[in-house]
TrEMBL record:
This is 2,3-diaminopropionate biosynthesis protein SbnB. One of its GO terms (cellular component) is cytoplasm. It comes from Cohnella thailandensis. InterPro entries: NAD(P)-bd_dom_sf, ODC_Mu_crystall, ODC_N. Gene3D superfamilies: NAD(P)-binding Rossmann-like Domain (3.40.50.720), ornithine cyclodeaminase, domain 1 (3.30.1780.10).
Length: 323
């Protein structure tokens, strides 16, 4: 068995295009026997803001991996100067069930999240009949998830980024940003300044309350990574709504669940990420239609990317061998 942590993951690196390709490859199997991911159970006790989530999955095809992610999210940790999330993951051999890797890496969870956003962003940019050579990005929430998205955007779309605006209620220090981006990121005093001037807008917050109370600009891509930032009335008229898995995302007080309960949004009314990527689902909508992406987080993506890092670790000798 191999043990990998954040430093091992960083040594292997983040080849974003390859990671996005692996996400897309796993996505192709959704709805078949080559991708199995039971509904995630949530463990809550005492302080009900906290949750620990079990995310088992099997992915066949070129990925051929199985395992379970066990991720704890304790929002109060931020007030203690501790990470909000703690991520562990075990991979098992698909033939024997023997454990082959143990990963303790919050970095890996952030990488998965940003790679999925990259897959959605690619589909959004490619569906435009006359794609603009450059676009403006806005990020609200500049913790580990927001920063990882920033790294992905710079790596994959650097020559197409016209401007990046960012806001965080705790403030944003330029020293926390990648050195090559400090001159390109504009720190804003309010989320509205980010929202109103972005072609691609990301929420990467831990906000306890919904605060976005205005409709999206035409043609905007809303990457709703944190899932609980939009007042229902601000998005109730959107037609191009995309989810990764309806069963997962229509619960746990997400914006999708709010739309379902308050405005009758149903599974038949949304596109899946698989339909967008593999069936060109966005082509049913004109370019001026705003796109609202809500990814609850598919365990299959975590397992697929963990398998990639395991194989790279075996190839390079990175990691600690456990008996």
């Amino acid at each position: 068995m191999i043990y990998l942590n954040d430093s091992h993951i960083d040594r292997i690196g983040s080849p974003w295009r390859e990671l996005m390709r692996i996400v897309s490859a796993a996505l192709k199997h959704q709805g078949t026997e080559e991708l199995v991911q039971p509904l995630k159970p949530y463990l809550r006790f005492r302080d009900l803001r906290n949750r620990i989530i079990a995310m088992p999955a099997f992915v066949g095809g070129e990925v051929e991996a199985s395992g379970i992610k066990w991720i704890a999210s304790f929002p109060g940790n931020l007030e203690r100067g501790l990470p909000r999330a703690h991520n562990t993951l075990i991979l098992n051999d698909t033939s024997t069930g023997a454990p082959v890797a143990f990963l303790r890496s919050s970095r890996l969870s952030a990488i998965r999240t940003a790679a999925v956003s990259g897959v959605m962003l690619d589909a959004y940019l490619n569906r435009k009949r006359e794609p603009a050579p450059r676009f403006r990005v806005g990020i609200v929430g500049m913790g580990p998830i927001g920063l990882t998205h920033l790294q992905m955007l710079h790596s994959v779309y650097g020559d197409r980024l016209e401007e990046i605006r960012a806001f965080d209620v705790r403030g944003v220090s330029l020293e926390t940003l990648p050195a090559e981006l400090r001159g390109q990121v504009r720190i804003c005093p309010d989320w509205r300044e980010v929202y109103d001037r972005s072609d691609v807008f990301l929420t990467c917050t831990t906000s306890p309350e919904r605060y976005i109370d205005r409709p999206a600009r035409p043609g905007t891509l809303l990457l709703n990574v944190s899932l609980r930032d939009y007042a229902p009335d601000s998005v109730k008229l959107l037609r191009a709504i995309v989810v990764d898995d309806w069963r997962e995302v229509c619960r746990e007080n997400t914006d999708i669940e709010k739309l379902h309960l308050l405005h009758g949004l149903a599974e038949k009314d949304v596109l899946t990420l698989k339909q967008v990527v593999w069936e060109k689902g966005l082509e049913a909508y004109p370019p001026e239609e705003a796109v609202f992406f809500n990814p609850m987080g598919m365990a299959a993506f975590d397992i697929a990317l963990a398998a990639y890092y395991l194989r790279q670790a075996e190839r390079t000798g990175i990691g600690t061998r456990l008996e």
